[in-house]
Specification:
2 copies of one chain form a homodimer.
Chain A (H helix, E strand, L loop, with lengths): L5 E2 H5 L9 E6 L2 E11 L10 E7 L2 E5 L3 E4 L3 E5 L5 E17 L15 E2 L1
Chain lengths: ~120, ~120
């Protein structure tokens, strides 16, 4: 595939599902995805990888077991591998850029994960 | 280091130098940096790694040998490994998020690279 410019807003306009990563590009064995978040996700962790969140729109509360990190547009946060976390969007929908290793389960568990869609 | 929210605009306000990556976070062996671009960079390639560009402000022309990809705010582009490229900011300063393997030379050559600063 010839790499092209990826317009994140345009990609986010292609779907309505929340907590459903939509992969827009690949980078060094990782998937770059856009996600719409609304409400509370589940507590989980990724034992073998960091996870990158960049807020594009809205306010995300990243709950960790010992504190909550609040992120607005243009703010990013890297959840270190092995760290329990729960992303929450309690003030309306949040639009996110996410980066994870290719095909990683978004809940940390293949049995409960939402499979990423490529768009 | 306890990971914190990284405000990209706030980080970009801490320096004036152009084409000088300022590292703001680490992710799975990669550095996440912010950069101010102005004018033309040099043609180069990275033989062993992809390179991620996300435009935060301004218009970037990513010249490849066979075409030019124009990127505005909220648009990202992954330069595949081994691909010659020259990022250019010809219409004023461009603010970028950049992701590369830790300590990678930004020109593809340690002899000419600008060493990234951590902020």
């Amino acid at each position: 595939m010839t790499p092209a410019a990826i317009d994140l807003d345009e990609k986010l306009g292609q779907f309505d599902a929340t907590w459903s990563p939509h992969t827009v590009a690949a980078f060094n064995g990782h998937d770059i995805a856009v996600v719409k978040a609304d409400g509370e996700f589940v507590w989980h962790q990724h034992d073998d990888t960091d996870e990158l969140f960049l807020v594009l729109d809205g306010e995300l509360e990243m709950e960790l077991r010992d504190r909550t990190v609040t992120l607005g547009p243009g703010e990013l946060f890297v959840v270190p591998k092995g760290t329990e976390h729960r992303p929450c969007a309690r003030k309306g929908q949040v639009k996110l850029l996410l980066m994870d290793p290719k095909d990683m389960p978004n809940t940390g568990d293949p049995a409960t994960a939402t499979v990423a869609v490529e768009i």
